[in-house]
Amino acid sequence: MMHNPMPDMTPHAPARCPLLWPDWVLDLQEVLLAQADVPPVYIVGGAVRDALRGQPVKDVDLTTQKGAIRLARIITNALDGDIFIMDEERGVARVFYRTVDGEQLTLDVADYRGDTFSDDLIDRDFTINAMAVDFLGDMSLLVDPLNGEKDLFDGLLRRCHPQAITKDPIRALRGVRQSVQFNLRIEPQTLIDMRAQAASIPQTSPERVRDEVFGLLALARPHSAWRIARVVGILDVILPPMQTITGEAWNRTLNAIERLGDILLAISPRRTDNTAAVFDLGMMVMQFDRYRAEINRYVDELWPNNRSTRSLLLLAALLHGLNDDEQGIANVEDCIDALRLSVPEKKRILACLQGAEHVLALDEASDLTVHRFWYQWGDAGLSAVLIALGLYRAHHSIEFQQTAWLELIDRTRSILAAYFDLHDEIVSPPILVDGNDLIETFKLKRGPIIGQLLTLIREAQVTKQVQTAQEALDLAAVYLAQRAN
């Protein structure tokens, strides 16, 4: 591996902007300085990059020559936190703790990647991630052997060394994410290497690929990341069924992701006066304002694996172009399986895609049609509504019809109103009689007829034809008599 034989590891003041550290990092430095036998330790990677950019620092990576796990235990005991040994052989541990304000923070502590600290930095992925700060020294000074600060502020993503991406091809996918995340142009030779190594990405752990994919989905502009991923040759390698979506269909897919992102932003606390200034978003925000808090809680909900509903929605938007027939649904499932998603996540994505088609096919929003929608799709129905709005806007971006959009907004508002305001009346009316009641009253055997009767009664409750248990039994009696004749 050809590295710079004499990298400059001298700490120096940043040339462009000062390092801005949050109080919790400075407090942690004081805690460590007060401990005995603490080895030299450096903050590296993303935390340094974000401190230079003046962005919030939430998680910190620390590196030390040897004894990272011992250092992690020192930190854990000093902070009354929790430790997780990630790789004892390589010396990697994670510390979780809460600040006095209750904020959950994560510290990753690792031994050097190589024999020396300079080896550690130079063997990283991109120069913007190869900067460091002496955590026990002057934290206003920067260690920057590869001129990552200059690349960062020049808007350039550059690999650390010629073998950086070859050594770990997943870095090609990470490069796509970071180029969009930090608005960087990919340096030409780095781009060549990313393209060359795209085919090797599937040789890495599927879980690492999945995590990088969800990193793309978490971006403010995921559609831009997917556009670059396809140009670089990565998308069709990690999700082979996507190769069938080309030309105008691919443009619609990107448009769907962008429009869905616009919708999620417009109803989120991050919206600005300009966010909903355009007609379509403005009308939607006005109609949905009553339900914004509930929708945001739903979208921000974290699944047990810490992936968010928002990310699943955006993944569904990416895959929606495959969902056109039986073979298409199989292709969607293949993509989901390739990403090693959980069974509940898979069910949610499939349900929200099919539910979105249900929303778009509705020509009215009567109590009964809305009830049938929620009964079929359950909690995935809210995802289906959001996907449907994004798909409609994407597929009608050129010939946008205000009247049709307003009608869709009105129907979807009725769907939401039923869920949030009239749940016990329309979505899930109280059970008046159950299967056992029907079997006992009418001397029936268990079978499909029981389900048919329960559906008949439940839908009659929604339309206010049935309101008591006796009325439910009377309706069942009439149905059975007609069936007998």
TrEMBL record:
SUPFAM superfamilies: Nucleotidyltransferase, Poly A polymerase C-terminal region-like. Residues 183-242 form the tRNA nucleotidyltransferase/poly(A) polymerase RNA and SrmB- binding domain. Keywords: ATP-binding, Magnesium, Metal-binding, Nucleotide-binding, Nucleotidyltransferase, RNA repair, RNA-binding, Transferase, tRNA processing. Residues 41-158 form the Poly A polymerase head domain. GO terms for biological process: RNA repair; tRNA processing. Transmembrane segments: none annotated. InterPro entries: CCA-adding_enz_C, NT_sf, PolA_pol_head_dom, PolyA_RNA-bd, tRNA_CCA-adding_enzyme. Residues 425-473 form the CCA-adding enzyme C-terminal domain. Its cofactor is Mg(2+). One of its GO terms (molecular function) is nucleotidyltransferase activity. Belongs to the tRNA nucleotidyltransferase/poly(A) polymerase family. This is CCA tRNA nucleotidyltransferase. It comes from Phototrophicus methaneseepsis. The lineage of its organism: Bacteria, Bacillati, Chloroflexota, Candidatus Thermofontia, Phototrophicales.
